[in-house]
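Recall the central idea of this unit: under ordinary conditions, the amino acid sequence of a chain determines the structure it adopts. In this exercise we apply that idea directly, starting from the sequence alone.
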Amino acid sequence: MNLWFSIPLSILLTLIVKEDFEIRKASNRYIFFVFVLSIVSLTSSDELTTQVILTAAVFLIFFYLWMISVIGAGDVKLITSLTLGIKPELVLLYLVVIGLLGGLQALCIWLNTGSIGERGLPFTLPISLSGFVFYSLTQLTY
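Accordingly, the structure predicted from this sequence is:
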């Protein structure tokens, strides 16, 4: 059980979300540390190949969404980095929860301000919440 990995992850994700809300950018430095943490946590995985292939597929899908301006580049990097540390059987649920939380966030912003705004959504919040939960669940099972 490597639940200790969740402590630095929670700190990193908090910093990423804070920065996204303040300046609307996700720090590459913090995302890199999330990526490193996910790689280190892979050492206890018995599904290494599957996780890497699934992470590559998630990256390609979200990279395409970035190319058509649906999602930001920092969001793509964060989703990909977190996916690497999540068990393959939890990845689909992780992505669905991101979508649900993102929709809830958009609804709250729209109800509060009357529009989503020109700046879009600080999408690192739903990514981080979902990622933290499913990353921690993964660590509990190893």
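DSSP finds six helices and no strands in the chain.
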